[in-house]
Amino acid sequence: MNILYAVQGTGNGHVARARHLIPLLAKHAEVDIWISGTESQLNLPGGAQRSWSGISLKYNAHGGLSITRTLFENRWLRFIRDVLQAPIHGYDLIVNDFEPVSAWAVWLRGGTLLELSHQAGVRHPLSPRPKQRNALGEWILKNYAPSRQAIGFHVQAVAPGVHPPLIRSEVRTLKSTPGPRLLVYLPAYSAGALAAALADCPVPVTAFVPQLAVPMVRGAFRAEAVTTEAFLTAFAASDSVLCSAGFELPTEALFHGKRLAVIPIKGQYEQECNAAALRKAGAWHAPSLTKLKLDKWLASPPPQPAQWPDYSEDLIHEILSFAPQRLAASN
User: Fold this and answer.
1) Residue 222: what are its φ and ψ, rounded to 5°?
2) What is the pTM of this model?
């Protein structure tokens, strides 16, 4: 069986899930890997056979989505050409984690595609939403990487086809020895903006900033570039995590019983949806870094660890069941 695993590379969460699942899929099939977007700092197992520019969301330095940069810095004509020319045929199954090139290629040119993403969980009508729904945000969630069949993940398994968080093995087995330290991952903020807000923090702060060339130290605050080893070391040593309202890092923090506060990226509707779900799981939520009641949050009791089971092998068999020959054999 030949499988294409196409992963969104505009952040680390999608790639972290791929790092966990691809070796498990490779026990049952030949797996090729595609990635689109260039913002992830994590490596894929064995590397990607193809790398596409895709469509990347661009941010300003103060926690918000930049519409201007997103419109003018993406290569739209190249994206259309890639969709029309991407070699999607020859695969028994295309597993797509919110990757737009392969998704649109299959939508327009045919093929068997299974979406495997957190976004599929967010889209479910039973999943939490912010008080004000955003029609454009809902449209983007549905059409950025379109699919006809999907397996989703969310903070709560709200319905059939939506699974609880899949905690990757390197985090699940991590020996966490937390002390009064704060880990920060807010990629939409610059190192300078983070330092200005957190230099006087009552506990030591380790902030990870994508593409930071030189570490920055100011008072209790230290910023450094993202590497897997350094990030996991800081995660294990911290009892508190302050991050954007993504999915993987917040749920990993809850799994280990760490104090969690999330700040959604301004203008990114999916993160507002995530924040609504994470609040129900015990996370603090602030609209911006300056509005987070830092001292009060750091003095609050940490949550009990979330007991999400490891269902990786069952998930692999569920994924494989979508391959046409498996479907034919079961009929």
Assistant:
1) -135, 130
2) 0.90
